[in-house]
TrEMBL record:
InterPro entries: AKR, Aldo/ket_reductase_CS, NAD(P)_OxRdtase_dom_sf, NADP_OxRdtase_dom. The record marks K80 as: Lowers pKa of active site Tyr. SUPFAM superfamilies: NAD(P)-linked oxidoreductase (SSF51430). The active site is at Y51. Belongs to the aldo/keto reductase family. This is Aldo/keto reductase. PANTHER family: 2,5-DIKETO-D-GLUCONIC ACID REDUCTASE, NADP-DEPENDENT OXIDOREDUCTASE DOMAIN-CONTAINING PROTEIN. It comes from Sporolactobacillus nakayamae.
Length: 277
């Protein structure tokens, strides 16, 4: 696997594809998945406090670094502050707890997991403090709609580098993508394969046949070719490896448009505007 990268608005280089570990609550499975991913060429690993697997993720990172010639600086590790830990002081504490569980000295990217009304601005101030102190290389948000970003940017001293949201061909989020691009914020897709629901889609199957690729590879290529970071989740070694093999082909403009046309504004996860925080 050759790792493609993007340059964030603070000039930090971030891999455009990584491994997500949502709902991998077994520490040993999380550790093994991380090891398989890094050994397969992945350099971006995305976790969160609420996933309750930061310890396993950290064990996987440690094992690979001990057994290979890779260094910590070769990896890009993301975690997120959970809703119950939002607010200025609580965020600073939560960050340290995540670091301890991961066994790391710093994070490459720290995100606000959801835009909790009345709290996310204080949370962002804490994130800015961590960033200014050099404790994290970049800060961003997750599940923010345009109006959340507009509100945050009114007072923010640091512009988020990333907005990680649910995105896949049934939920292309084009207005949000356009807004983020206009403000130098990189969109990152969670559930990029729509939790597997699109793997049997006839349009995508037809495109996959043309390129001699799997439907998952076609969808992931659609994301990264559009400049969107993707973090597919899998604990299967073969699928982790397959998902990473998307750099040796390019989708035509026609095929990109055909996939875009599948949009139905359909979510598999919570709507940030109605989510019960």
């Amino acid at each position: 696997m050759t790792q493609q990268t993007v340059v964030l608005n603070n000039d930090i280089v971030m891999p455009i594809e990584g491994l997500g570990v949502f709902r991998v609550d077994d520490q040993e499975v999380a550790a093994k998945s991380v090891q398989v991913a890094i050994r397969s060429g992945y350099r971006l690993i995305d976790t969160a406090a609420i996933y309750q697997n930061e310890t396993g993720v950290g064990q996987g990172i440690k094992a690979v670094l001990e057994e290979t010639d890779l260094s910590r600086e070769d990896l890009f590790i993301t975690s997120k502050v959970w809703n119950a830990d939002q607010g200025y002081d609580a965020t600073l504490k939560a960050y340290q707890e995540s670091l301890t569980k991961l066994g790391l000295d710093y994070l490459d990217l720290y995100l606000i997991h959801w835009p909790v009304a009345g709290k996310y601005k204080d949370t962002w101030r804490a994130m800015e403090q961590l960033y200014k102190e050099g404790k994290v290389r970049a800060i961003g948000v997750s599940n923010f709609q345009i109006h959340h970003l507009e509100d945050l940017l009114k007072d923010a001293e640091v512009t988020p580098v990333v907005n990680q949201v649910e995105r896949h061909p049934r939920l292309t989020q084009e207005p949000l993508k356009d807004y983020c691009e206009q403000h130098g914020i990189r969109l990152e897709a969670w559930a990029p394969l729509m939790v597997g629901e699109l793997l049997q889609n006839e349009t995508i199957q037809g495109i996959a046949k043309k390129y001699g690729k799997s439907t998952a590879q076609i969808i992931l290529r659609w994301h990264v070719q559009g400049g969107v970071i993707a973090i597919p989740k899998s604990v299967n070694e073969g699928r982790i490896q397959e998902n990473g093999q998307i750099v040796d082909f390019e989708l035509s403009a026609e095929d990109m448009a055909a996939i875009n046309a599948l949009n139905q504004d359909h979510r598999t996860g919570p709507d940030p505007d109605t989510f019960d925080f």
